[in-house]
Amino acid sequence: MKDKKSPKTRLIARYGFSVAVILAGLILNYLEVGSEFLGFSSIGSWLVYVGFIMMAIITLQLISKKKRITDERAEFVASKAARISFVAIILFAFVVMILDGIKPIQISYSYFMSSMVCGIILVYLVSYKILNRKY
């Protein structure tokens, strides 16, 4: 069953949600709620940052709108690569918990998370390329 919302309505909803995230961040900053969060001075600052990133992504998607044709094979490969990446995240988290229990990790949280996100993207890219050749 297809969604009956028009593309314009969806676009307005997406921009509206990003503006709501920015406003929530500004309100939290004004009320001075929270402390350092993911390398930002407060949760509100992080929300404002995420809201602007959301707006940038929505705008880039709007600018580079192309009609893409995907076949079942491409969807299958992408699904398998996503599944492999998810399993890698779970295994990595398990290994990190064990290593942290043996010897506490001494790097900053923001550096650790940025490295982990890059690693997840790398795992997805490599698994996608391998599966694309196999299937």
Task: Walk me through the structure.
By secondary structure, the chain is mainly α. It is built from 4 helices and no strands. 76% of the residues lie in helices and 0% in strands. Helix 3 (72-102) runs antiparallel to helix 4. It has helices at 7-30, 43-63, 72-102, 109-134.
Layout of secondary structure:
Layout (H helix, E strand, L loop, with lengths): L6 H24 L12 H21 L8 H31 L6 H26 L1
- Total helix count? 4
How many distinct domains?
A: 2
Find the structural class using helix and strand composition: mainly alpha
Q: Biggest β-sheet, characterized? A: none
Shape: flat
Q: State the end-to-end CA separation.
A: 29 Å
Query: How many beta strands in the DSSP annotation?
Result: 0
Low-confidence stretches: none
What is the radius of gyration computed over CA atoms, rounded to a whole number of angstroms?
20 Å
Mean pLDDT: 84
Proportion of beta-strand residues: under 5%
| Helix-strand string | HHHH
The percent range for helix content is over 70%
Describe the structure concisely.
With 135 residues, this protein is mostly helical. It is built from four helices and no strands.
Which structural traits does this protein have?
mainly alpha, 135 residues
